[in-house]
Amino acid sequence: MNFTGFTEEDFQTFQINGLIERMTAIQERIQPKFNQLGSALADDLAALLGQEMFLHIARHARRKVNPPNDTWLAVADNKRGYKQHPHFQVGLFDDHVFVWLAFIYELPRKKEIAQAFLTHQQMLQNTIPADYVVSLDHLKKDAQTWEELDVEQALERFQDVKKAELLIGRHIQADDPVLQDGEALYTLIKETFKTLLPIYQLAYK
Question: CA distances (Å), 64 to each of 19, 23, 110, 116, 128, in order?
Answer without folding.
Answer: 8, 11, 29, 38, 38
